[in-house]
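Entry type: protein chain
Record version: 2
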Amino acid sequence: RVAFSPEIPRRVGEARTEWRLFADLAMRARPERSFAFRWPDNQALRAEIASVVPSYAGIERLARTGDAIQWGG
């Protein structure tokens, strides 16, 4: 089960979301491929996941607290 968790509007120091940590690492390791790791926000990342991983269909519709999706019963 995947449930929507809103982004915390106030950042603490240099805190980043989990996916930004991996994106930053990938950009440093392979700067020539940095274009592949740029999403403006969490919603854009969920849309990308849904488009490349068919079994995650529906994740792109998570937008509000309480939204959830469950696969396979």
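Comment: The beta strands are 2-3, 68-69.
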